[in-house]
Amino acid sequence: MGQRKAPKDGDRKVGRRALLIGGAAAAAGSAVLARDELARLWWRTPGVERPRKEGEVDYGGARWVAASDANWRRADRPDDFGIDMVIVHVTQGSFDSAVKAFQDPGHKAATHYIVRQDGHVTQMIRELDVAYHAGNRDYNERSVGIEHEGFVDRPQDLTDEMYEASARLTARICARYDIPVDREHIIGHVEVPGTDHTDPGPHWDWDKYMRLVRQARTAPA
Ligand SMILES: [Zn+2]
Question: Which residues are the signal sequence here (predicted)?
Fold first, then answer.
């Protein structure tokens, strides 16, 4: 697996120190300067979130439907956790049943995106946040999760439209976080250490998918 980015605790310490310096500058009569300093640094302070708008999506082609907040936790990625992985899932059910499950606080799992068999993309969790989808805390923190509508034992569920739409989405995610387009960084749920899940299953065509992601990655945005 790819190298994990170094924890950002160092940055946070610098942030706190800079805030103290900012306070001293204010005391010395440079209040405006200190305010600028604070404005630049506030988002690095633990517990302070970046502003976000309800309904905002990270991928232009996606429609927003919010997951229950019991199925993810707030974060400030990629500043608190680096993102270096996309994890591919298959829903084992219909698109509607996956949306319902992710809206259910009792489900305790959800992905950032669901791609429907007709290629429609729904985003349910912001990429800023950590979705519970890999069954592995480290992998959840460093990845974006994408569900695909279908059953692992039904190859006919894995449509060309779905592969193409998902590949465009994954290519944009890889571009955004500078993730290499390879099978160490674009993996199936089954490849997550410790998982008992088998998705995306034996019929998922990795050669085709990776070719489509590479094509989309090099195509003009
Ligand atoms: Zn899965």
Answer: none
